[in-house]
Write a structure and sequence with these properties.
alpha+beta, two-stranded antiparallel ribbon, elongated
């Protein structure tokens, strides 16, 4: 596998984790976003990743070639809104109910830590490849 393929793979992994971190940040930022109805409530987002093999097929076990990560979509969770009785809230409906997104902060924080570690791993791969290339250049100096 050529160095440029490794750069492409590590870069795609870092890009995918950046998308993942963006969705986590959006979800955490909107945890307490109120809505006047269940249909208007913020829905948590989750990215969908797929392995794209060098032959551009979504198949498993594709030979010696590498596979980069493709962000296929960002989907909404589809969880039901949490209904709270808050009659003094400006967005309360006729019954005094306000709706909030069903976002699990612990899940989101765990997802954030995992995405951060995966991103750091991609950086480490790039640093190792850079070091290997520098070593190859030093061989020519001797």
């Amino acid at each position: 596998m050529a160095f440029d393929s490794i750069y492409k793979i590590a870069g795609s992994a870092m890009n995918a984790q950046t998308v993942r971190l963006n969705t986590v940040a959006s979800n955490l930022a909107n945890t307490d976003s109120a809505a006047g109805s269940a249909k208007d409530v913020y829905q948590a987002r989750k990215p969908v990743f797929a392995a794209m093999y060098e032959n551009n097929q979504l198949t498993r076990g594709a030979g010696m070639g590498g596979a980069h990560v493709q962000v296929m979509d960002v989907v909404v969770s589809g969880r039901e809104a949490k209904k709270r009785y808050e009659p003094d809230h400006p967005l309360a409906d006729r019954t005094g109910s306000v709706f909030y997104p069903d976002i699990n902060e612990i899940e989101e924080m765990t997802d954030m830590m995992s995405a951060t570690r995966s991103f750091e791993t991609g950086v480490e791969v790039l640093n190792r490849i850079k070091s290997m290339q520098q070593g190859l250049l030093k061989l020519g100096e001797a």
